[in-house]
């Protein structure tokens, strides 16, 4: 046997690979997961020796939610339950809102309240921040004015110029007595050990989200913290698509990066803060989290905007963001405007969009012509023929990278946040979105959508069908891996 192996080592490795692959495939099938994801993994295991096993090792392993993400103690904390109970809207009030400004969107409000206990908050002010320069100017200004605490959570915390500016500012504020807490994703970020040490020496509490081996080789591991948020003194919040990296700041680059972030004031910040504390409890490994009263201060009305925060991740029983957007799409009567860097929808979302188009809803999708991921680009393109044929219009953004993640419904409801329109955001990563029920703000968002269309080329079905065969082959191949991208 030893002689056979030494003389036929390649055949022996292949036999070992397929023994492991068949066993792993059986295990994947027995998990009774998403059939599309299951089929993708099984095909990879059986058709690609060694590579298939590595892909499954890095991307495919499932960790039971009740074992790894048992974190409900945060939401059960008496302080959080106290303000949630005070802000939650009862069924009778929801009916009144349905008759007035909410109209058909009370279904979305009720869904988020019933599944996440995230209240519809009133008296909020929302400032739209276009691109990285506006976002960081507003963020740094708010950080300089912080009096009690600063809580940040970012998927990418880069080492470039903007990262250095933020690091300097956080150290400065911590040394001045402001309590600073930072969560950074271990895979997405490039935070050097010396920078982390400097933050800690300045008094900043900083923790990585789910450290893994070889992060540079596993850029898209499952269960990453894809959120980008900040809470200051419990009264000001930031959320959106812009990470801490120079590529997001157009004044620091020759290329153009189109993105959107929000500056929030009002009771909605409490909902945003609760989700930060949930992840803080997880990354610190605390059995009981300490939540101070000033984390949730009394806030006077500072605007006229009604909002909810909706979050999702493997710590929850269902894909809350996907379900909220799914409900909004099904309630749409006139228009749905979507911007996303990656359009890789699961079957329910694809059917919802096509059904809305069949009802006569004007649906427009905007995504980048040249994205930052080869595989995601072609996987996105694999859906174009089908949705164009259903009557959905597609616009390729040509000015640069489009990274904004928004959806506007009927000019009255909009979603802005960290969630892309893809499998990974809907069902795997930790994401967070703001739902804004306000006609004036949504109209402002719609004006920016129309302005961005000036930098787009519309994708027409007749011309799309004539693209080269090699492009179609790339799309078909990438479509097989859609659940993994």
Describe the protein in words.
- The chain has 485 residues and is an alpha/beta fold.
- The chain contains 21 helices and 19 strands.
- It has a 15-stranded mixed β-sheet with strand order 4-3-2-5-6-8-1-9-18-16-15-10-12-13-19, sandwiched between helices. The chain has a two-stranded parallel sheet with strand order 7-14. The chain has a two-stranded parallel sheet with strand order 11-17.
- The longest helix has 22 residues, at 9-30.
- The protein starts with a helix and ends in a 5-residue tail after the last helix.
Strand order of the largest sheet: 4-3-2-5-6-8-1-9-18-16-15-10-12-13-19
Dominant shape: globular
Unreliable spans = 63-67, 215-220
Distance between the termini: 41 Å
Calculate the mean pLDDT score and round it.
83
Rg calculated over all Cα atoms = 23 Å
Number of helices: 21
Helix content: 40-55%
Number of DSSP strand runs:
19
The percentage of residues in β strands lies in 15-25%
Structural class: alpha/beta
Strand count, sense and closure of the main sheet?
15 strands, mixed
